[in-house]
Design goal:
17 strands, alpha/beta, globular, binds zinc ion, 2 domains
């Protein structure tokens, strides 16, 4: 089969290799599409342990079942999306359904072979059927962006009638606004420093605020005023990964509110308060973090998408061929992705 192999730091190479051997409990999937983004540029630089080389990257996998042993598995030919997180299945976290924080977790496309190849092995428990007429470019968004958002919105407990502030509306913040609305949030205010991003998310939220040049205190006041939420928001999402956005997200909370920290700040990060007691401790706020997703998040995310509650089309970037992934990653490393996911065509025309 054709595969794009990572053979060393910064080195990707197309090759013809043997098909993977089918194992009990694992399904053989013909890859239809995968995705390329900033994460892959970091993987190629050696950010995470690949568990040996060569390794086939590509943690976002949409494909077609070729062979699966379980009677519960979709039949051959069914279009599926795969959850790339492979928990050990044995530990206390896996028993709780917290696959994404299993200390013994493996990951397709990181330390197990992933979707940058014509065929891939996926645990049968990690496969979710999709309708055959789904737009393939959008199906790719169901493999990571949507479940990651569902995970965060669920973990922080967004519920009917809640008031939500979202700081940073790139691709993840954009999805957060939609999923929070689907979970029942009735007031959503989006803040960003880009008018373009705010215009894109405007149809999904009640108000937008450009917080460019504002201090966190000024941003807090502007976001409360825009939402008509004088005493603060039930939930704040931080997706920008910037210390001032972190500070704003904590400030906009009502007493007893909860902040979901999704953005990744660079390196050592300090959060400062003028009064640690008045602004933080005595307000009884909760800070929650998130990483990845669980299999349950796929059930929820796919159902919301198929019911028309999510529009993932603004997340879809250009489609590139598998052999063009190295050049695409070089382009992304230099110019970014503009809040989009590049779709990798592995076998979109076949089948
Ligand atoms: Zn485990």
């Amino acid at each position: 089969m054709r595969a794009l192999l990572m053979i060393g730091e910064g080195r990707l190479e197309m090759d013809d290799i043997a098909m993977p051997d089918v194992r009990e409990g694992w399904a053989l999937v013909r890859t239809v599409a995968s995705a390329a983004g900033l994460f892959h540029t970091q993987m190629v630089k050696g950010m995470l342990d690949t568990g040996g080389l060569p390794r086939i990257l590509g943690h976002e996998i949409v494909g077609e079942i070729v062979e699966a042993g379980s009677p519960a598995s979709p039949s051959p030919g069914t279009l599926v999306v795969a959850d790339a997180v492979v928990g050990c299945g044995v530990c206390e976290w896996c028993i709780r359904g917290e696959d994404s924080i299993c200390p013994w977790m493996h990951h397709l496309g990181i330390d197990l072979d992933g979707g940058f190849a014509e065929y891939v092995l996926v645990p049968e428990a990690n496969i979710f059927p999709l309708p055959s007429d789904i737009r393939l470019e959008e199906a790719v968004m169901l493999s990571s962006a949507v479940p990651a958002t569902v995970h965060a919105v669920s973990r922080v407990g967004v519920d009917a009638g809640m008031r939500v502030a979202v700081s940073g509306v790139g691709s993840i913040g954009f999805s957060v606004c939609q999923v929070a609305k689907a979970f029942g949030a009735t007031t959503i205010v989006a803040a960003d420093v880009s008018d373009g991003q705010l215009e894109a998310v405007a149809p999904w939220v009640d108000a937008t605020v450009n917080v460019g040049g504002m201090t966190p205190a000024e941003a807090d006041a502007a976001i409360r005023e825009a939402g008509g939420v004088e005493h603060g928001f039930d939930v704040g999402f931080e997706t920008a990964g910037h210390p001032s956005s972190v500070a704003t997200t904590i400030k906009v909370l009502r007493p007893g509110g909860r902040a979901m920290m999704m953005g990744i700040c660079d390196g050592q990060t300090a959060i400062s308060f003028d009064s640690y007691l008045a602004e933080f401790v005595r307000r009884e706020v909760s800070l929650v973090t998130t990483f990845g997703f669980t299999r349950h998040d796929f059930l929820v995310g796919n159902a919301l998408y198929l019911a028309g509650r999510l529009d993932v089309s603004p997340l879809v970037g250009p489609t590139v061929a598998l052999e063009d992934v190295p050049a695409t990653l070089a382009h992304i490393a230099e110019h970014g992705t503009g809040g989009k996911r590049y779709v990798v065509d592995v076998g979109m025309g076949a089948g």
